[in-house]
Amino acid sequence: MGGRSLTRTEAERRARLLTVERYDVAVDLSELTTGSRVRCESTITFACHLPGAETFVDCAAAVESATLNGVVLRSAVEGRIALTDLAERNVLTVVSATECSADVQGVHKAVDPADGETYVYTDFAPDYARYVLACFDQPDLKAPWAFTVTAPAGWRVLSNSGDPQIEELGSVRRWTFPPTPPLAAYNTVINAGPYYELRRRGAGHDLGLFARQSLASILDRDADELFTLTTRGLEFFAGKFGMPFPQHKYDQVFTPEFPGALENFGCVTWMDWFLRRSTPTRAEWDIFSRYLLHELAHMWFGNIVTMRWWDDLWLNEAFAEFASNWAAVSVTSYTDAWTAHLAGEKLRAYFVDQGPTTHPIRRQVRDVSEAKATFDAITYPKGASVLHQLMTYVGEANFSAGLTSYFATHAWGNTTLHDLIDAVADAGGRDLDQWRAGWLETAGTDRLTLDHDADGFALVARGPDGRPRPHVLAVGAYERSGDHLERIALVEVEVAGERTRLDLPAGADLYLVNDEDLTFASTRPDATTRDAFFRNAARLPTATARGVAVTTAWDMLINGEATAAEAVQCLTGVLAVETSASVMEPYLDLAVEAADLWSPESERDELLRAVAAVCRSLSGAGAFRKAALRGFARTACGLEEVAWLRTEAGEDIDLQWRAMVREAQLGSPTAAEAQALLDRDPDPDAWISRLQVRAATPDAAEKKAVWQTLATDRAVPLASVHSVATLFWSSGQDDLLRPHTEAYLDLVATIHRSGTQQATIYTKSLFPLFAIDPTFVERAEDLAAQAIPVVRTNLLDRADRMRRILRSRG
Q1: Which H or E run contains 409?
Q2: Fewer C-beta within 10 Å: the chain N or C terminus?
Q3: By C-alpha distance, which of 78, 55, 67 is closest to 3?
Q4: Nearest Cα to 230, choosing from 245, 216, 246, 213?
Q5: For the chain, which residues score pLDDT lower than 70?
Q6: Given the DSSP bridges, would you call strands 414-415 and 306-307 parallel, antiparallel or unpaired?
Q7: Neighbour tally for 155: CB within 10 Å
Q8: Can you tell me the distance from the alpha carbon of 759 to that of 636, in angstroms, rounded to the nearest whole number?
Q9: How far from the centroid of its chain's Cα atoms is residue 444's Cα?
């Protein structure tokens, strides 16, 4: 089973030739309680605009039979069935079968270790529908889909359109769903299993939440917040986009072993890692709220209006990312969403955009294989940040009016970059051609530096190729007032050249470039206040201002202009005074990373102790307590400190596991205690927590066993791969880790075998953090040149990151 990647040229030719009228798809899941076979009968009704022409239908599953207008067709070759002598109107029927396995894309069977129940999901993005059923697997051949699903009698079956007819057929049920609106193949879904269900009315819609039976109590705990967020998001987007969500049912399904979240129309699929087993912190809810609103925004950006081809992936992803933050700060309690975005996703975008894999937000994509490499920090958070800048540039009211016009014109169709930007330009009355070329079609990050000379202040702007992009931003001037800084001036400026004069007061204690975080740019303080900048960041009066300062400090670290000690000084200072719970954990993550990964070995323990001291101090504050104790669990420098943490953790099993991980890293035996904790942990996935303890243990046999489970068997759910791998590559264990650095390089050739998301996570998460040198980084880069695009991109990103880290350690 397999197939060639569809090229842009092939897709354009097929789109000109065909109009798909509808899909009728019968799916048989009845064997999955005991077996692994999924059988599909896909009937496609379509018109051909040039009768007598030929094309192909995608089908990388095992084809049992295929007929076109009653004529038997040959089997698929390289995932394609040839269609010849097409009539003006055609009916194609293909029967196919797929075996659920770890290496098959498109459909997955998961068995809950808690109770042995089976759950099944389809995952058709970007072009994985073809691995399950016959279809024209490209985004601009949209059509209604009518699914009929046969499944075991005890299961619920969920798909895009609600209100199926259900027939009892003995040991099975048949679920017949109404046709969907016109959708691309990757927007469709089937989820099935003995799901626990909750329903509620919201924003005029029938809202559903589903989880595996063993997580019913967790879903009950979180349901009020999930329903509230969904309701507010539906109301907000209906108003801002001038179009209510056009279906009365909207379901969200939390399923085991799903690799992320997917915006299937009317039936979003989530990995159930998002249902936190321990009561979520504010930062975890902040992230979840933005993910939930992101997938909800996709109902418009991606489903109702779909990109014509993958070079406009940003139309889906950047807009959904932007819209989630826009909605969060506007209508939910997560009003620090943009600051949290800055502390996490935007920082990653700055890093990637200054590295070897940067690319324009919109770029030419030759085939779907190449498109898979663009699901990255450029398309998502940089794209979202650039759209935030666009809304600032034209004004929110004009921006919303442009979106309303866009959806009114293009609903249920396909669009390109020009369609959207033209709609916003018309509404805002601004020529956006220069903006479009600079922001969407040019790679790299602008550098904005504050300069001070005899004539006063100037903002020096430089773009990746010299001339800067158009920016609208602000520069703040702050002076000391007791222990704090007070803003005495805020100068908004539109940058249209390399040097822009600023009317700023002289003698301020701190000048903050990109105050209010209005644009996407690498910023620097003026040279005279550079050293004071790290000390003064904590004195800034707002979470956003502190976030901009932290971003500047981190950008200086990754570019070799600041030390790990300076970054830790800035972060611990901010953490000690931070009032926003939404950014507390992201800053703790950065502080730990700076201290543990970026610092020279001779400074590591001292910097970890500095972070641990802040965590211990914050652990007394109710809103920050859990986040602070989690940070302390990563930085405690002795077993006495771990013992204190265990006392503080009390009955919080999650914190007890984290304490045990640190105890293991410090070399204390943990096997008996870990087994006892495993026995009393109600989490159905508690074995992963036990594996994390083993991963952290400085023992050669344990390292070998964990590597087998993690990297060779790939038995760890994708949501947990990063956490296990990070502990595997613990600092101070170089001699134990060195053999596995070679094992990583050996994996590269086959690391993509299970699909795009898996390839991304394994390539990034398994990359060694210790026991390597610049020569290893060069070898990884050499392997990247031979890898498929998604692996190449992520491998080069990791290599670039480690080269910078090694330089900082030196």
Answers
A1: helix 396-410
A2: C
A3: 78
A4: 245
A5: 1-2
A6: parallel
A7: 24
A8: 33
A9: 21
Reduce the DSSP state of residue 447 to 3 states and report it: strand
Q: Strand 118-122 to strand 107-111: parallel, antiparallel, or no bridges (unpaired)?
A: antiparallel
Listed residue (731, 681, 737) closest to 706, CA to CA: 737
- The tokens of 200 are what? 């509620």
Residue 126: is the preceding peptide bond cis (ω within 30°)? Answer: yes
* Three-state SS sequence of 768-802: CCCCCCHHHHHHHHHHHCCCCHHHHHHHHHHHHHH
Residue by residue, DSSP assigns 112-181 as -TTT--EEEEE--TTTTGGGTS-B--STT--B-EEEEEEEETT-EEEESS---EEEEETTEEEEEPPPPS
How crowded is residue 699: how many other Cβ atoms within 10 Å of its Cβ?
17
Strand 118-122 and strand 165-169: the pairing is unpaired
Which residue stretches of 491-600 are H helix?
530-536, 543-558, 564-577, 581-593
Q: Is-catalytic flag, 295?
A: yes
What is the C-alpha separation between 127 and 316, in angstroms, rounded? 15
Given a contact cutoff of 8 angstroms between Cβ atoms, the answer to whether 184 and 139 are in contact is yes
Angle, helix 313-331 to helix 417-428, in steps of 10 degrees: 40
Interatomic CA distance for residues 230 and 245, integer angstroms = 12
C-alpha distance from residue 752 to each of 138, 718, 757 (Å): 21, 13, 9
AA letter at 532: A
Q: What is the helix (H) or strand (E) element at residue 321, kind and residue range? A: helix 313-331
Q: What is the pLDDT of residue 1?
A: 46
CB atoms < 10 A from the CB of 284, how many?
A: 17
CB 702 within 8 A of CB 669: no
The answer to whether 33 touches 112, Cβ cutoff 8 Å, is no
Q: Cβ(364)–Cβ(494) under 8 Å?
A: no
Cα–Cα dist 3/135, whole Å: 13
DSSP 3-state percent helix, strand, coil across the chain (nearest 5): 45, 20, 30
Own/partner pairs for 541-546, CB < 8 Å, 24+ apart?
541/478, 541/484, 541/485, 541/486, 541/487, 543/336, 543/339, 543/578, 543/579, 543/580, 543/582, 543/583, 544/338, 544/339, 544/342, 544/516, 544/517, 545/476, 545/487, 545/512, 545/515, 545/516, 546/574, 546/578
Under 8 Å between Cβ of 169 and 77: no
Q: Report how far residue 777's alpha carbon sits from residue 277's, in angstroms, rounded to the nearest whole number.
A: 37
Greatest extent of the chain over all pairs of C-alpha atoms, in Å? 88
Show the tokens assigned to 70: 């009653």
Contact between 607 and 598 (Cβ < 8 Å): no
Query: Quick one: which of 495, 309, 300 has its CA closest to 411?
Result: 300
**Per-residue pLDDT, 289:** 98
CB of 365 closer than 8 Å to CB of 8: yes
Active-site choice (263, 295, 578, 648)? 295
**502 membership: H or E segment, kind and range:** strand 499-502
**Neighbour-count burial of 70, counting CB atoms closer than 10 A to its CB (0-12 exposed, 13-18 middle, 19+ buried):** exposed
In Å, what is the CA distance from 756 to each residue of 124, 126, 372, 379, 769?
11, 9, 6, 15, 23
Backbone angles phi, psi at 801, to 5 degrees: -60, -45
Calculate the CA 218 to chain-centre distance: 23
Residue 431 CA to residue 4 CA, distance in Å, equals 41
Rg of the chain, C-alpha, whole Å: 27
Query: Which residue type occupies 483?
Result: D
* Whether the Cβ atoms of residue 468 and residue 497 lie closer than 8 Å to each other: yes
Q: Do strands 267-271 and 249-255 pair parallel, antiparallel, or not at all (unpaired)? A: parallel
The token pair at 771 is 């026991």
> Strand, coil or helix: what is 301?
strand
Question: Closest Cα to residue 278, out of 662, 685, 585?
Answer: 685
